[in-house]
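Standup, Tuesday
Yesterday: got the pipeline producing structure tokens again.
Today: sanity-check two examples.
Blockers: none.

Example 1:
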Amino acid sequence: MEEKSGFGYFLLGLGIGVAAGILWAPRTGEETRQLIADKAGEGADYLKNRAQEGSEYVRQRTEDMRQSASDLYEKGRSTVARQKDTLNAAVEAGKQAYRDAVSDVKSATSGTGTTGANSPESV
């Protein structure tokens, strides 16, 4: 709080000093008014330039963020697609293993079922 009020007093003193310097300057009223108008115009131009620079900075940062978000989205999308493909391959491998196991059980069952005790070959 102390620093803020000290800075405020500094700015007040600066403003009073500038005003006093302009008022007691060895120039005519017309020259002084023209000087004030010129300086005000320079200040306005300076502020416009700074605002344009700030606007350009914000625009560039926005574009950078948009590109970064797009890159992250694409990276996530490709990762999900890759994981989906891996999962589908695993499911298909599981289905094929199941089919093979069922086929092996059927062939083992049909092979032992025909050579049982009641079959003509066992007599």
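Example 2:
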Amino acid sequence: MSAADAIRAVCAAVGISEPDGWGAYFDVVQAWDAKTDLTSARTDIELAEILFLDAAHVIRAGWVESSASLVDIGAGVGAPTIPILLSDATLRGTLVEPRRIRTAFLRSAAGTVGISERATMLEQKIDPARPVVAGAPFGVALSRATFAPDEWLPIGAQLAGEVWALTAGTDAEAPAHLALHRRLDYEVPSSGAPRSILAYRR
């Protein structure tokens, strides 16, 4: 399966049209992945699912309003935030990543796909007790695999009005001041593994 076919397969499985720029983003990730081990993907379909599956479900559900701002803590390879930004030219994002090589990748990727003017890359660590990110408060705070969901929710709530926890199909224990506002439950097409995105608000 080619890269283009893999991206189309993810979009078809979710039921969205492929946003402009997803192919270019896939290509730059794949090029860097060969040199720096950005992801664990072994095939094109696995990489397409890592990069686009979560974003595709968020886009289909209409979770992100026009002109919204997102902050991604421990952004890593930039998914799902970069694919979400590519779906709507009015969106802005701040991607926070402590590792220099990954921050360099994120800046390169943003330039390649043409979102540098509305995507800010910050090379920094986050203090869980007192998280500080330039530009806060944001509309949405998300983090994938950097913190356990129960640990992440109170951190994200200090940065944004809505906090997303991305889990392997499990629920999260939220602090008393946060309530579950909406959720997405789905499976990874190639493996059947469960996934959930849980959105909390005060």
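Quick observation on example 2: The mean pLDDT is 97. Residues 3-201 form a domain with the Rossmann fold fold (CATH 3.40.50.150).
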